[in-house]
Amino acid sequence: MTACIKTRRDIICLLAARNCLRTSAALRVQMATDIERLVSFEEAYYDQYDYYNLLEYSGHAGGKGRSKREIELNTNRHCPAGHERKIAEKYHNSQMKRRRTKSSSS
């Protein structure tokens, strides 16, 4: 035993840590084999249409049948100037309000 291991509890903790390292290594090996199996399954059973469905269409209803590329092209993009649409809408509404008040007052 080394000098840093003094109690029985330290020995148990050390053994548990070694066991966890072994377990995590075994899990990594298992995950690697699972990924290899998945890749070989895809190569064996997927065709161009399956890959098209996986890559182009997402599973949510927000796209309404559009591809990911179409969604990205027609989505709201970041505007560095800020809330231009809101400012323009407020200006338009205030102009319409002024016109209504002028026409009703005369």
From TrEMBL:
Coiled coil feature spans? none
Q: Which GO terms describe its cellular component?
A: nucleus
Q: Which Pfam families match?
A: Phospho_p8
At the top level, the lineage of the source is Eukaryota
Q: Where is the composition biased (Basic and acidic residues)?
A: 81-92
Q: Where is this region: Disordered?
A: 76-106
Question: Could you give a single Gene Ontology term from the biological process aspect?
Answer: negative regulation of cell population proliferation
Q: Where is the composition biased (Basic residues)?
A: 95-106
Q: Which InterPro entries match?
A: NUPR1-like (IPR018792)
Its family remark reads: Belongs to the NUPR family.
- From the Swiss-Prot or TrEMBL record, give the protein name: Nuclear protein 1a
Q: Which organism is it from?
A: Astatotilapia calliptera (Eastern happy)
